[in-house]
Amino acid sequence: MIKGQITIKKLPKSEVEIIIVIPWEEIKITYEKLVERAASELQIKGFRKGKVPKKIAEENLDKSKIYSQVIQELIPNYYEEALRKNNLNPIVNPEITLVSSKENSDWEIKILICEKPQINLGNYKEELSKLNKTSDIWVPATQTGKEPQKDQQKKKDEKIQEIIKWLLENTKIELSDILIEQEVNRRLSELIDQTQKLGLTVEQYLISSGKTTEILKDEYRKQAYETWLIELALNQIADEENIVVDNKEIEETIQKIPSEEEKRKLEAQRYLLASIIRRQKTLDFLASL
């Protein structure tokens, strides 16, 4: 049962601000429950495990850590309630800020989320159909009268690259800073992991590549923007054209993988695999216009 207040404010770029006010009484009850739980596991000289008096237990526990656990326990219920009651559908992880957290006062938490933005693709079918006709490249046939398979694939790849370029230049969309910055941070984390494996620091990598941190972040922001734009545009087209992926297609893709270990990994990521297949089917559809 939610006892506090939830306030919703719609912001530009499909962002939504959720303000949660949790009564001190609820904070206090949860705090005391967590103290009791921690005390039951506490081992202090002179007391049997689970028999430490509450006052002594509190003196030996990290108060800030307990209050952090209070927030972790309470926020999910408030967050889910806010989404359910207001029909909100975030597409990335929320950004959570503790606004105020004084003892004996109500606590205030701000949560910032981003929903799927509005996308304007214009008359993409007609425009891409024209593009496909002008981008058809003649390739000499073999003696059998058929194009070599590698040439057919090359033409298809070039056509898909033209389609992606068209979508980047013509899709009208306002992307949230949340989307961009979370993707930038993900790429930075990957870079840190990669440089560490090579025995380097990020600073050493930047020096060797002749870049500054800001230049790198700007590059990542551009890449993040393009990645999200293409992802959202293709998803919208797939929805409009009712492009779906069935279990048979997923199974066929998995069975093509020679490595049993890779097969098991894909089995555990069927949702991700389905989204990749759907993306390719959508690109194939656009290339056939």
Provide keyphrases for this structure.
two-stranded antiparallel ribbon, Trigger factor, domain 2, single chain, Alpha-Beta Plaits, alpha+beta, 6 strands, 2 domains, 4-stranded antiparallel β-sheet, about 60% helix, about 290 residues
How would you describe the overall organization of this protein?
The protein has 289 residues and is α+β, with helices and mostly antiparallel strands. The chain folds into 2 domains: 5-114, 2-Layer Sandwich (Alpha-Beta Plaits); 119-287, Trigger factor, C-terminal domain (Trigger factor, domain 2), CATH 1.10.3120.10. It is 60% helix and 11% strand. It has helices at 24-41, 54-59, 63-85, 124-135, 149-170, 177-197, 202-209, 213-240, 247-255, 260-267, 270-287, and strands at 5-10, 15-22, 95-100, 107-114, 119-120, 172-173. The strands form 2 sheets. The chain has a 4-stranded antiparallel sheet with strand order 1-2-4-3. β3 (95-100) and β4 (107-114) form a beta hairpin. The chain is elongated and about 90 Å long.
Estimate percent helicity.
Answer: 55-70%
Query: Major sheet, described briefly?
Result: 4 strands, antiparallel
Terminal CA distance = 53 Å
CATH level 1 name of the largest domain: Mainly Alpha
**How many DSSP-defined strands?**
6
